[in-house]
Write a structure and sequence with these properties.
Strand order of the largest sheet: 1-4-5-8
Mean pLDDT: 93
Distance between the termini: 30 Å
Order of helices and strands: HHHHHHEEEEHEHEEEHEEHHHHHHHHH
Helix content: 55-70%
Number of strands: 10
Length: about 525
């Protein structure tokens, strides 16, 4: 929990001076350059090298590959709010969620950590290469080390010539196929790692082009996936592959580099990707419902479609965006290189977005009926693309664990000793204070925000102190903690939607009464399921 930055209505909802103009540029790029390529990409069910290469070309022509490179090194680094907005708009184009992924991952998982943690010498060495169009990937995951990152087996051995050489196999690496460089996490001190698995690992920098030629690196195998078709997901085999540099501290790369890098990315780029996919599903379903006729009228006029499926889709998209907006706004408020102050909000945004987008896309396919099940419509591809957002960069279960752990830390800190009435106004994430929103206190009471926060606090207290759900291992929390994090995420999202609408924020100015009611109905449903399953 951070108590150093409070998000007022103005800080959270007001557009920054440059944001409208940048959003217009993003929209033009998506409409003029990306949409035609995405339409062509939808015709292919397997990775097309031609389409992949063209996607990289158009993103680089637009300058997107420089969005995480600071100005002092020749880039055009943009704030997290704008990086998230760009990702949302790109993924909102049907069939495009995969097209910008290698460039996007290059920004968030290579360029960002490089300029956050790299030595001055390394940054000056690689900046011209990256600006010219070369890119990098983030080689962390292994076949038996996904969410359990510290279970990696790749080893790096320091030779007598002073060069570290890496041996091991990395899997599911976005863009590893043609990446020019790679950040590789490997065990560098086995004894240290054995004593504490969070340590003894170092992030190494590898020149992939050179090592492919020398035969110490094989990136020829791409996975066959159900979604993200045109984003190569690569197996990278390192065979005594030399690294030309290290990133961050020796033997402590996981804690210092990887955790911050993933924390920065999951609550901005990945959550934004989920929002965009959800919004594309909604737009496709809405358009189809308007044109499809049944029983003498468009199916949009049917309550089951308009007030059922479509309303639920729109509402969940709004909740996803509310949490993502909070997360990326907080990221901009803190110094680069340390995601700890907002890690819970980042995990909450990714958790809820990853879970909701699948529900949204599934309902979108249902609106299409039988046509949704054939490849003539993009909704099937959109659904398949949606699944990954709950998996990569930490599964939903991992995100839920991280948020729940933060709840318990606040309990243990004694922060709840205040009067209940005060606690429910500020806790557990004292990140927003809407005192600058006229009449917010009355609205929050009238809409049941404070009452639901009290319900959350009561349920969490029952889980933590009833004795029925003892915590023996913080990496294996009892099931009720996972349920209550999703309920809290829905409540946070519904609260931000209501505040933004009352404030007159452009992001939420078109939110209807029906959406607000449905948002709180979703919240109540989450609490009811939690209580009926575990607390009664």
């Amino acid at each position: 929990m951070s108590d150093t930055v409070v998000l007022s209505g103005a800080k959270l909802f007001d557009k920054r001076e440059f944001e409208p103009e940048m959003d217009e540029e993003f929209d033009r790029f998506c409409e003029n350059d990306l949409k035609p390529l995405a339409t062509e990409a939808l015709k292919h069910s397997e990775l097309s090298e031609e389409i992949f290469d063209e996607s990289v070309r158009i993103f680089q022509k637009f300058g997107a590959h420089t969005f995480a490179i600071p100005q002092e090194y020749g880039g055009q680094q943009i704030p997290a709010r704008m990086m998230t907005s760009f990702t949302r708009k790109v993924c909102g184009v049907p069939g495009a969620a995969d097209l910008g992924l290698s460039v996007g991952a290059g920004n968030s998982l290579f360029n960002a950590p490089l300029f956050n943690f790299g030595s001055e010498e390394l940054k000056k060495q690689l900046a011209p290469e990256l600006l010219s169009g070369k890119d990098g990937c983030f080689a962390q995951t292994e076949g038996e080390a996904g969410s359990h990152v510290t279970g990696i087996r790749a080893r790096a051995i320091l030779g007598q010539d002073g060069i570290w050489r890496i041996t091991g196999t990395k899997r599911f690496i976005t863009g590893g196929w043609k990446a020019n460089y790679a950040l590789v996490l490997a065990i560098s001190d086995p004894l240290m790692h054995q004593a504490n698995e969070d340590t003894g690992m170092t992030v190494f920098v590898v020149d992939c082009d050179n090592e492919r030629v020398r035969g110490t690196l094989d990136t020829s195998k791409n996975e066959h996936k159900i979604g993200l078709t045109h984003s190569p997901t690569t197996e990278m085999i390192f065979n005594e592959t030399p690294a030309f540099a290290t990133l961050g501290p020796l033997h402590d790369g996981y804690r210092k580099v990887n955790l911050t890098t993933l924390g920065d990315s999951r609550g901005t780029v990945i959550a934004g990707q989920a929002v965009g996919i959800g919004e594309s599903a909604y737009r496709e379903a809405f358009a189809y419902a308007k044109e499809r006729k049944a029983f003498g009228e468009s199916i949009y006029e049917k309550h089951a479609i308009k007030d059922g499926l479509l309303l639920d889709m729109e509402t969940r998209n709004r909740i996803m965006w509310a949490l993502t907006l909070q997360s990326c706004t907080l990221k901009d408020a803190f110094p680069k290189g340390d995601s700890r102050p907002y890690e819970a909000q980042a995990s909450l945004a990714k958790l809820v977005s990853g879970e909701y987008v699948r529900k949204v896309a599934t309902k979108g396919l249902q609106v299409h009926g039988g046509n949704g099940y054939i490849c003539d419509y993009p909704i099937g591809r959109i659904l398949n693309d949606s699944y990954i957002t709950a998996i990569y960069e930490g599964t939903s279960q991992i995100q839920s664990m991280l948020v729940a752990r933060k709840f318990l830390q606040v309990f243990q800190s004694g922060a709840l000793n205040a009067e209940t009435e005060e606690v429910i106004r500020i806790w557990p994430f004292a990140e927003y204070n809407f005192e600058d929103i006229n009449g917010w206190e009355n609205l929050a009471t009238e809409m049941g925000v404070l009452e639901r926060r009290a319900r959350f606090l009561s349920d969490l207290n029952s889980i933590a102190f009833s004795g029925k759900f003892p915590v023996e291992n913080f990496k294996n929390l009892p099931a009720p903690y996972f349920a209550i994090t999703e309920a809290f995420g829905a409540l946070e999202g519904a609260t931000i939607i209501s505040a933004g609408r009352h404030y007159g924020a452009e992001e939420f100015s078109d939110v209807s009464d029906e959406v607000v009611r449905r948002a709180f109905a979703i919240v109540d449903g989450e609490f009811e399921q939690l209580e009926s399953t575990y607390l009664r």
